[in-house]
Design goal:
It comes from Micromonospora tulbaghiae. By secondary structure, the chain is an alpha+beta fold. The chain has 15 helices and 36 strands. The protein folds into three domains: 70-235, no CATH class; 244-374, Roll (Ubiquitin-like (UB roll)); 381-604, no CATH class. The strands form 14 sheets. Strands 22-30-29-23 form a four-stranded antiparallel beta sheet. Strands 31, 32, 34 and 35 form a four-stranded antiparallel beta sheet that branches. α2 crosses α4, α9 (271-277) packs antiparallel against α10 and α13 (395-407) packs across α15. Mean pLDDT is 85; it is low at 1-46, 54-63 and 145-151.
């Protein structure tokens, strides 16, 4: 209508704002109402201001909630051992956790009751390295849930990270286990002449160290007694696999000779030489692996190879006039051993085509005079003698001397481990050993190589008094007065071995000598200790022998019997005028029965 004053035109577009909801707040939709009916509508500006204010409040509230939830490195509501660590920095959380551990010190240091098999004992937590790793525990607690609301309203309890020294724990648990356990019998194939004989595997009865560590950690935290079961641990090679190797390799290997050809001529390798050189060794897991030992093959072939090759000679040492004298090295010309072993192993299962071609190559000695001089072998550092009866005509004495000759002049370089079984190999009839009494199944019976335990004990003591590291040895079941108690060792091919490690910076020379009634082993090297002595604890748990009547016959060996007892021996090593090391050796001897080769009185 002309003449009337019209309202100013509003050319802004009409805006529809969707409802914004928040817990506890209701908002009406904001829209331009049709017509003008109904209640007076709020102005669009007021409605927009109200919505904008609520959004701003929500945003501001969100920032505040996030700041609250994410305060500190550790999420709120996080506890460890009942102590609230949430909302703290890692440093503050660590401090709080350490304070809690101080409050629990008496409980955490209380000896832990353990049962291993049927034996019970208590372990001091500090002796096996049981502890709570504070830093690792706080780091675990700081692993936050990414959702802010979870951090705000959630709660969680984090288990502390427990550490343990598995080596110390294993040793402690094995001590508790005691005689309940048993060693694993490794699979093997041994030769009697050209006949392969199986040694079947048997499981160890021992402790699962990883599993034991888990239950000990849990028991320590809960302050509850722990039971550690004994488990069987089997070698990797089974009885069936041993039989298969015998059928498919060992027996065919010695069924016929092998022809070895070179550019210098040919030689026949007879079955006996094959048996001497074909070895079956098990690794620590009990995996049985065949290998042709070319050094043994050369020895078995003897003069057959001398027309084809010249053996190199290592520099060596001999004792002359009470001093070590160097024997010079010499170069040679030999069949390539690295190629010959696998090539020979490949044809041994065959019935035809048993021919191997080998190449003759220049052969340098493994040890030259210059390398020998660097080993620093200049003086005798220990010597030990044991005595035997029967003179050198006795089969037992002959076995002792045979082993001594095999080992005489052996060099052990720094860091190397000497194995008596590994050095002599099988001690059978073919190697010059005789039948003599040996302990099998708790009684004396004739066995090839009987008496070698006396040489083993002599060598063990020589290495012991040289301060060398004991790696493996096992004392006899019965005590024999010709040996020092506890610090002595038996041996049995292939299950029982004697090993020592040269843990010095100098080489070690083993020198052996004998008389008609004694065997002596001396260790030559460079002295690094003032003295090595043995201190004995008292004998305890003494048991008396029983009388056992055996069926008379050639295999029956009478014995006077001996008491059984337990005893500790301490190797005390002094250096620079002070005790450098004190090592404990312990053993329990069974009472040796009084064996009588006669019917039991009163028996018909």
């Amino acid at each position: 209508m002309y003449g009337e004053k019209m309202p100013a035109a509003d050319d802004r577009p009409t805006i529809k704002v969707a409802a914004v909801s928040w817990p506890g707040v209701e908002m009406e939709p904001v829209a331009t109402p049709p017509g003008g009916g109904g209640k007076p509508a709020r102005s669009r500006r007021a409605r927009l201001l109200l919505a904008g204010g609520i959004v701003a409040a929500v945003l501001a509230g969100g920032v505040g909630l996030g700041a609250y939830a994410y305060a500190g490195d550790v999420p709120r509501g996080t506890t460890v051992l009942g102590t609230e660590l949430g909302g703290r920095s890692k440093a503050e959380a660590a401090q709080a956790l350490r304070a809690e551990l101080e409050r629990r010190a008496d409980t955490l240091n209380t000896p832990l009751a353990v049962t291993v098999g049927g034996n019970k004992a208590e372990l001091k937590p500090s002796d096996v390295g049981l502890a709570i790793d504070v830093e690792a525990t706080v780091a675990a607690a700081a692993e936050a849930d990414a959702h802010a609301v979870s951090r705000l309203v959630g709660s969680r309890s984090v288990e502390p990270v427990v550490t343990v020294d598995q080596a110390k724990l294993g040793a402690a648990l094995r001590k508790v286990m005691g005689a309940q356990g048993r060693e694993m019998t490794m699979p093997a194939i041994i030769w009697t002449g050209t006949t392969p004989k199986p040694v079947y595997p048997k499981p160890a009865l021992t402790i699962d160290t990883d599993g034991a560590a888990a239950v000990v950690k849990a028991g320590w935290l809960a302050a509850e007694p722990v039971t550690v079961p004994l488990v069987e641990k089997w070698p990797a090679t089974t009885r069936e696999e041993v039989d298969r190797i015998i059928a498919e390799l060992a027996r065919p290997a010695v069924a016929a000779p092998v022809t070895l050809t070179t550019d210098g001529g040919s030689v026949t390798v007879p079955p006996a030489a094959i048996a001497r050189s074909l070895r079956f060794s098990a690794d620590d897991a009990g995996t049985l692996t065949p290998k042709v030992d070319v050094k043994r093959l050369r020895t078995a072939l003897g003069d057959r190879l001398t027309k084809l090759e010249v053996e190199p000679q290592d520099a060596g040492l001999t004792i002359s006039g009470g001093k070590p004298k160097v024997l010079p090295s010499k170069a040679g010309r030999q069949v390539d051993a690295a190629a010959l072993g696998p090539a020979l192993l490949a044809v041994l299962p065959k019935t035809e085509g048993r021919t191997v071609t080998a190449e003759l190559k220049p052969a340098a000695p493994e040890l030259t005079e210059a390398e020998l001089a660097k080993l620093g072998i200049k003086e005798r550092v220990s010597t030990f003698t044991t005595h035997f009866t029967g003179g050198l005509s006795s089969p037992r004495s002959q076995n002792i001397v045979r082993a001594a000759k095999d080992v005489d002049g052996a060099l052990v370089k720094p860091g190397e481990t000497f194995s008596l079984n590994g050095h002599t190999g099988e001690r059978g009839y073919d190697q010059g050993y005789k039948d003599a009494p040996t302990i099998v199944g708790g009684k004396l019976v004739p066995g090839v190589g009987g008496g070698v335990s006396q040489f083993t004990t002599t060598l063990f003591n020589a290495s012991y008094y040289a301060g060398l590291e004991d790696v493996e040895h096992k004392p006899h079941s019965f005590y024999f007065s010709r040996y020092p108690a506890v610090i002595e060792s038996t041996i049995y091919w292939p299950q029982l071995d004697f090993k020592f490690r040269n843990n010095t910076p100098y080489g070690v020379l083993i020198d052996t000598s004998y008389t008609s009634s004694s065997i002596t082993v001396s260790i030559w090297s460079t002295k690094i200790y003032d003295s090595v002595k043995t201190e004995y604890g008292p004998r305890r748990n003494i048991t008396q022998p029983k009388t056992v009547y055996l069926t008379p016959g050639p295999s029956c060996i009478a014995a006077a019997g001996a008491v059984g007892f337990a005893q500790d021996a301490y190797r005390v090593i002094k250096k620079d005028g002070k005790v450098f090391k004190r090592e404990k050796f312990s053993w329990r001897y069974d009472a040796e029965p009084r064996f009588i080769c006669a019917p039991k009185p009163g028996d018909d």
